């Protein structure tokens, strides 16, 4: 008795699907952010240090920070008091150790790079850049701010080493802290607003390089933002938009006053205008940072088969 044979259709040989290549845009974006941030530092320096009107507006904002409210003055004083190198260095060491405990040595190295590169760059620029006497005040160069660089680099490091789901929340807290420090340095007449803005951009430029290095060693496609991070982005975006509009209009009024309309705006108005501009810059900087850090690909080998 013959057994019927069942013809089995030949199966195509299973070939490994090529690993998805890294998206060029996803890989290059951090470097693009770094380049734009560095260009922003150059533009800020030229506008507010190398031009007479820029110097006048910058100094007018700093000179208007005579705040009489005791509670506000106390908060600003404490923001400066707790921003010293020993405490910030301790926070950075703990952040790097936390990255090691998470088995993310790349993040620990990136954190160390951000802190070291940003603060060294700031100190180098402050000691090598010149401030021409264009307003007759003969003030020394204070560009960029070391205090703001230190505060922003610590906040950036904490965002970087924490898990993705918490990076937005940590970023929002860090943005509040950096805002206080930046405004406090202007209030105490240690720095002008342009010094704080440049410091933020320097930290962002160094952070972009660190994120680029992390992305280069991790395979896979970027993951979408999680809900907590999306909410933080919305809060920062609204805050940044409102304060940017107020700051731009206010700076225009201050510039017109410095051009030839003395008394057109008060010193207090100039200080509030500069503070609004600082808030907008902090919000924009942290939006970019949270977006860069929350967008990292997952660890592990690329997926060679189908999707699940």
Task: Label this structure with key terms.
308 residues; mainly alpha; 70% helix
Rg, Cα atoms, Å: 24 Å
Shape descriptor: globular
Give the structural class: mainly alpha
Terminal CA distance: 47 Å
Number of domains: 1
* Helix and strand element order: HHHHHHHHHH
**How is the main sheet built?**
none
Strand count: 0
Low-confidence stretches: 5-22, 300-308
Helices, by number, come to: 10
In terms of quaternary structure, the protein is single chain
Beta-strand proportion: under 5%
Helix proportion: over 70%
Structure explained in plain terms:
- With 308 residues, the chain is mainly alpha-helical.
- It has one domain.
- Helices cover 70% and strands 0% of the residues.
- It contains ten helices and no strands.
- It has helices at 24-49, 52-63, 70-81, 85-101, 105-128, 146-161, 164-187, 193-217, 227-260, 267-293.
- Helix 1 (24-49) packs antiparallel against helix 8 (193-217), helix 6 runs antiparallel to helix 7 (164-187) and helix 6 (146-161) runs parallel beside helix 8 (193-217).
